[in-house]
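step=predict obj=Cupin domain-containing protein n=115
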Amino acid sequence: MSTQQFESWTQPEGASLEEWLNTRIARFETRKYDFNALKFQADYDPKYRRAQMRYMGTGATGVSNDNNTVPAENFTFSTMVLPPQCEGPLHIHHDVEEVFFMLRGEIDLFIEHNG
């Protein structure tokens, strides 16, 4: 049985263990709201304005590089901030699961079942 290795799993040459481990820590205080990640959708319709705050990986928003995230090969964790009266466009994921959680406010969620 072979073990798959990813480049992000390797401690960079010249980096101390502490420096390398610090690249695996993402704190709320060091995150920033990125309203540009999905700006192309807000440009189409302002109701789609929202911000992504990335913790692990960059996801499928079109942001290919963010040195302030924990490197990830097959996983993404980010939060989205939707201003009042804004929404995400209808879409589907065939390759990943998506989780929604509310910290405050209300949301209308549409789910297609067996469709």
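step=describe
The beta strands are 51-56, 77-81.
step=end
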